[in-house]
Amino acid sequence: MMYKALVVEKQNDGFKRSIKTLDIDDLPDNDTLVRVSYSSLNFKDALSATGNKGVTRKFPHTPGIDAAGVIEETKSYAFKPGDEVIVTSYDLGMNTFGGFGEYIRVPAEWVVKLPSGLSLKQSMIYGTAGFTAGMSVYELVSRIKPHDGEILVTGATGGVGSMAVAILSSLGYSVACVSGKPDAAEHLKPLGAGRIISREEFLKDHEKPLLKEAWAGAVDTAGGDLLACAVKSARLGGLVTCCGNTAGGELPLTVFPFILRGISLVGIDSQHCPMERRKTVWEHLAGDWKIDHLDDLYTETDLEGLDPYIDRILKGKVTGRVLIRVAADD
Q1: What's phi and psi for 172, nearest 5 deg?
Q2: 94, 209, 325, 326: least surrounded by Cβ within 10 Å?
Q3: pTM reported for the whole predicted model
Q4: CATH number of this structure's domain 129-267
């Protein structure tokens, strides 16, 4: 049986992306075959699609760390053909052929049954970005309540940031957003953002070891000086989550925020999240954390129209989520 996929191939002068017809027998020898309805575009996908060896080691390759669809075949007693499922993270789309193809074959241990309350399409509007935001919210709500003060979100117009803003505001939190985009308010205000802070304003005193207390908690999606300033300006007992490094992998901090204000810095690793917590977060996203206005958070395309979005996300030009209609039957 043949299927369509976006394939990245190595050439003498670099890497080439194209839509190809592949043989399903060439998929990895795993126990569960899924027909993909939807996927979504993440920064890691764009790196894989441009031949980044830090993400994907072997080519030809099909990126796509997100996939939602229907099980066609499985050897697992946990699932049956016809089940609607979500597969995100683990090695999908990195060195295992991913969701930018009409079929994936993965270990059953990577698969989550689609929670009631979500369609396949909605699950991929969330995708890894929404799941990562959900993991951040999971940590925050355990310690910080809406009456404790504002929550800061950095990189707020990106996929994770947009989702975090929308989820937190729906739960009654006041949300302040940091963004370097001049039209950020147009995107973020409808999601529930209380105020928008320019990146320049936020970083103006970044070299100081401590800043004025401002936030009860923070969701940082960027790393670097943005994360450092979020920690330095968190209030006594505040909690800051960290899930990205688009602003840099270095963290210019002293110990002062931790020993003088008792700040907690929590790393978010969506790739290796334990399955029980993974299921819990997805249940929240489908239920009490579900965003009412998911339709305001995405742009939709298909495999043939995906290429320009890959270039745009690498340049920081994508706002919100890019949903990919792979073989939509939802």
Answers
A1: 95, 10
A2: 209
A3: 0.94
A4: 3.40.50.720
